[in-house]
Amino acid sequence: MRRTVSAIAAEQGRDGSLPWFHGGQLDPWDSVEAAMALDVGGEHARAAAAYRWLAARQRPDGSWAAEYRDGAETQPAVESNHAGYLAVGAWHTWLASGDERLVRELWPAVRRGLDLVVDMQLASGAIGWALRPDGTPDDVALLTGNASLFQALRCGIALAELAGRSQPDWELAVTGLGTALRTEPAAFADRSRWSMDWYYPVLAGAVTGGPARARLAADWDRFVVPGLGARCVADRPWVTGAETCELALALVVAGQPEAALEQVAAMQHLRHDDGSYWTGFVYPDDARWPVERTTWTAAAVVLAADALAGATPACGLFADPAALPAPGTEDAGSAATLPGSASA
Length: 344
Hints:
By secondary structure, the chain is mostly helical.
C-alpha cells in the first residue's frame, strides 16, 4: 500500500492538483478520491494541497468544471456529483488527520457545493445530474451520482455539526434522497448495464443490512468474473479495478468482508511493479484497456484495503456508513467541535 500511495503522489502536480495521471485530465470527484488515499497513506500534506487546489477553483455558485487540464477548465459543465464530493473528502481528512485548520478552511467550499446540490433536487427527491445552460437543474437523475451525493450530504451534515452550523435544508434533502434511492427506481435514468448502479446505493449507505445483501446477490453473476474482478458494464468482457474495489467497499458495508477480500485479491492482476494500477482488462483479448494507470483506480484499492484492515481512523467512512449522523441528530461521530467555527 505504501508503494501504491507513492505512485499516486508521483502524479501530483507541484500546485497540488491530482489528475488521473501526470499531464492528463482532472475531475473533482476522482481528485477527491485520490486525495483520500494519500491521507490513508500518511501523506497528509499532499492530500491537503489537493483539497486546497480544488477549493481555490470553486466557482461562486458552488460548482466546479467537469474537467480540467493544466489548471484550465476544459469541460465547463456543472455536474452535481462534482459539486458535492468535497464534503466526503473533508470529513475523511478530519477522521484521518484531525487537521482542524484544514477543515475550517474547506468548510465554506463544502457549504457552497452542497447548497448547490440541494438547489438541484427534483420533486422526486432525486438530484438532477447537471445544470442546463439557463441555470436550472436537468430533470435527468443518475443513480450512482445520487448515491454518492447521499454520502456527501451525510458527510456535510457531520461537518456542519462539527463546525457548529446546523444545515436543516441538507437534512431534509438527504432524507428525501434516501427515500428515492430505496423506493423510487423510476426517479433515475436506466443505466442498469453499469455495475456502479448495482452496488453504489450499498457502498454509500443508502441500502444496508438484508436489503443490501439481497441487492448484491441479485446481480452477482451478471457483473462478477470469478478470479478477475467486476465488469464495468454487464455486456462487455471488461473488468475494471476501481469498480472491483468499490464493489469490495459495498460488500464490507453489507457485512461480507470475506467476499470483499476476494475481490481485492482478484483484481491484483492489474497491479504494476511500481504499485500503480491499470484501469481495466479486456480478458478475451488478454489486453489492458485503456492503456493507462489512473490515480483513482489506485485510490480505490487503498480505500478498500483500509476498510478491510481498519488501519486508519478514517476506515469507518466506507466500512460503517451508520457511523455518520442520521438526519436530525446531533452526533457527528466526534465529540470535538472546531475551535472558533461557530460563526464560520
